[in-house]
Amino acid sequence: MNETKFPVSLQIDYPDRELNRLTTFFRCIMLIPPVVILALLTGPGAWGDNSWRLFFASGAILFAPTLLMILFRRKYPRWWFDWNVNITKFSARVGAYAALLTDEFPSTEREQSVHIAILFPDVKKDLRRGMPLVKWFLAIPHWFILFFLGIAAGFCVFISWFAILFTGRFPRSFFDFVVGVARWGLRVSAYALLLVTDVYPPFLLR
Q1: Crossing angle for the helix pair 140-167 and 172-192, nearest 10 degrees?
Q2: Nearest Cα to Cα of residue 182 among 156, 160, 149, 157
Q3: Segments of the chain with pLDDT less than 70
Q4: How far apart are CA 186 and CA 57, in angstroms?
Q5: Is-contact 159 174, C-beta < 8 A?
Q6: DSSP code of 126?
Q7: pLDDT tens, position by position, 125-134
Q8: What is the pLDDT of residue 42?
Q9: Which of 14, 1, 201, 190 minimizes the C-alpha distance to 115?
C-alpha cells in the first residue's frame, strides 16, 4: 500500500540551505517555550518513554469520547476531529523542531514546513462500529517496531546535530529516515488513537 491510498499523509520540507548553527546548538533551550505550551495543552499523559510521542501527543487526543460516539452513535463530531488534527499538527511542528528537521520556531497556527493531511471520515461508510475497541490491540506490532525505529531516529538526530554544527546541513539520508519514522507513527496514531480510518497502516517509512 502506498501513502496516497492511506487517508493520512505527512511531508516535511527538506531545508535545502544552511541551518542556523546557533539555534541548533541551543535547541534544548529554544524548545522550552513550545514544549511548555504543548505540555499545558496535552497534560502529563502525553509524555512517555516512546520517542514518537514527541511527534504525536496522544494525551491531548479526544480518544475515549470519540470511541464512544462511534460505537453508540456512529458519529465523529467535526469539532472533535478539528481539535485532534490541530493538536497533532502543532505537536508535529514541535517534534520537527526538536528533531532538528527545521530551524523555524514552531507556530501555533501556520503550517510552516510540516505538512499533514488527514481526511475527515464518513463514519457510517468508512468506520465500522466495533473497530475502535480492538485497534489498540491490532496496532501492537506497529508500537513494537516504532519503539526501535524511534531509538534509531534518535541516534540519527544526535549525529545530525554535530553535522549541522560543522556543515550547516542535516544529512539527507538521516532526514528522510527520521521523517519516515514520524510518518509511520502518524499513520498508526490516526488508526489507533485519532480513529479516523479503519485502513490498517502499512509497514512503510515512505
Answers
A1: 150
A2: 149
A3: 1-4, 43-59
A4: 10
A5: yes
A6: H
A7: 999 999 999 9
A8: 76
A9: 14
Contacts of 178 (CB under 8 A, 6+ apart): 99, 101, 153, 156, 157
User: Is 201 domain-assigned?
Assistant: no
Q: What are residue 118's DSSP bridge partners?
A: 8
Amino acid at 114: V
So what's the pLDDT on residue 71? Answer: 93
Q: Name the β-bridge partners of 117.
A: 9
Grid cell for residue 46: 502525553
Report the candidate in 12, 56, 48, 51 with the shortest Cα–Cα distance to residue 149.
51
Residue 23: domain span: 3-192
The count of domains in the chain is: 1
52 occurs within a structural domain: yes
Q: Cell triple for residue 143?
A: 508500537
Q: Can you tell me the distance from the alpha carbon of 58 to that of 14, in angstroms, rounded to the nearest whole number?
A: 26
pLDDT in tens, 41-51: 876 544 444 44
Residue type, 82: D
Structural domain includes residue 11: yes
The answer to whether position 65 is within a domain reads: yes
